[in-house]
Structure formats: C-alpha cells, structure tokens
Amino acid sequence: xxxxxxxxxxxxxxxxxxxxxxxxxxxxxxxxxxxxxxxxxxxxxxxxxxxxxxxxxxxxxxxxxxxxxxxxxxxxxxxxxxxxxxxxxxxxxxxxxxxxxxxxxxxxxxxxxxxxxxxxxxxxxxxxxxxxxxxxxxxxxxxxxxxxxxxxxxxxxxxxxxxxxxxxxxxxxxxxxxxxxxxxxxxxxxxxxxxxxxxxxxxxxxxxxxxxxxxxxxxxxxxxxxxxxxxxxxxxxxxxxxxxxxxxxxxxxxxxxxxxxxxxxxxxxxxxxxxxxxxxxxxxxxxxxxxxxxxxxxxxxxxxxxxxxxxxxxxxxxxxxxxxxxxxxxxxxxxxxxxxxxxxxxxxxxxxxxxxx
Length: 357
Description:
Blueprint: E1 3-12, E2 21-30, E3 42-45, E4 58-68, E5 77-85, H1 95-110, E6 113-124, E7 127-128, H2 155-168, E8 172-177, E9 183-189, H3 200-221, E10 224-226, E11 241-246, H4 256-269, H5 271-275, E12 300-302, E13 309-311, H6 313-318, E14 323-325, H7 334-349
Helix pairs in contact: 1-7, 2-3, 3-7, 4-7
C-alpha cells in the first residue's frame, strides 16, 4: 500500500558563475521505501532559475536519488533531480549527466571513490560569527578544532546539520571547526562501513543534499551560510572543498602508491584547465598561505597541506590509498570536480601501455 507524503524536489539551477540549489514541495503517493522511479517527473519555470527564456520557460525535474527528509516530522522525502529540457533531453546546466557519461567509461574497471571536505562560514548581520564591527577575534589558527566560546561560534548549528545529514541517509563522516570562529567544515564520503558505496556519483549527490540541509538549517536558526572561497580578506583562511580521490589501482596493496604518482603526473598536465572548473574567485583563496597552494604553480607532497595535491602520510607508509586535491574552492560544483578527476583517469587510460591510476 502506498503512503501519501511530502516530497521536496531539489535541483541545481543555471545561475552563473556559481550554480545554486532550488527546491519545491508536492504531495505524492509512494511505497514505504520508494525508489526514484516511484516519484513523478515535474515541471518548473526555468526562466526564473537561469535555465530557460520566458517565451519557452518549461523545464523538467527527473528524480534520480531519494533521501529521508529529516526536517519534516513523519515519513517524508527529499528527491534529488536532474534537470531536463521540455523535450526530455538533458539541460545544458545538468553537470550530473556529464559525470555519469565519464563514469560509464571508467567505473567498471577503476571504481573511483570520492570524499569531500566542505568548508563554509556562518554569517549574521553581514559578519562571520565571532567578528564584531571594528575588531577581530583571536588570530588565525586559534579556532581549528577548538573548544570554547572565545574561539568557536555556531556549534549548535553544526550539530543540527550533522544530525539532519545522518537522518537523511547521507554518507556523513564528521565535522570540525575551521580557521575562523564562524568557519566550519564537514566531510562526506567513504566511511569504511560494510555495504556502503562511496562511488563518485553517490558522494557528489550526497554533498549537494548536505548543502541543501546547510541552508535549511540556516533558515531555522537565523544564520546565513556562505561558501565564499575568501569570506574575510586579509590573513584569514579561505574556504575550500578538499577532495579525496582513489581508484582500484590506487587502492591496490603494493602498487597503489605508484598509481597515485602516475595520476599526479596527469593532474599536473591539466592543472590550468582544472583551475577553471574548481570554483569562482579561486585565486583569492589559493595564495600559497593559510595551508593553500599557489594558484599559478602545481605542487604535490606527502603530508604537505600547502601543496596542490597532498598524499597523506598514512598512504605513503602503507603504499596504497588515495590522494587529496586541495585546490577546489568551497563554492565548486562537486559534479564538475568529480568529472575533472574521473576525466584524468580517462586520459591515463588513453596513454599506451599505462594502467589507470
């Protein structure tokens, strides 16, 4: 028997240069544990979202992944959607389908996994939490993973968001304070739990829904959430989207570290192109200071948080695992970041005699 429930349809709009989330709700009749196909497609006015002109405004929402709605009492759902044109073809703003196409080429052989560290800043009355007009809080570094009201602001918000993500079914890993008192980050992706799939498409979907819950929690608690890559000018940390990436080859015991270095060679070749896809105003964050690399130069190193690509110390010691791309900005589209990294596997596969990284 079907249940009559609320479904909040979520999609990514056509805002330039940084896409935004949109949502609208409807009542549906679905089974108790519904799949995306149990939810009907639904039209919307694309002329109001940067996805159509007013004289041909209809666009379609195609459900692709379903989550529990942790914000509505009862048994309701969040429905992540791809955007289609009125004729059913993928819309040009639909970056998810581009990632799917790349995964069709490499996923069967290399099974790429992702993990995102989403940094963000909480604002109130135009200032980050903990900043007062005409004065600054404690200097950079005092707030990272800190405890206490003189160092940290917004923990109630962070805990509310974390709980909502877990209830929704997102692959939520953890959270911690960032470089400023109102700056935080959370992690989504591989957790090592039996039966979980940290594949690139799933984790990118989860991050978009986790961002939706960030904004909704902000609505409820009276703060604004910013993904600005440099929320405060000067000697303060920017906000990034550090991305962990691995494949079957990099996770291969004994051979994985060599595969990581082969992949890093490819990433160096396409460094300039990736920077164009890693978020608006990225150069303001990648200054070579505050644990960032220099925008103009590609670099890598073991345990090096000021490099473009970091190889964790544990990975170097074990000879297998993942690399961390520290270049993407907090406002980057996770589908696009994932496409860049998955595309690097494709470039490696095209080299004669090379295995994927």
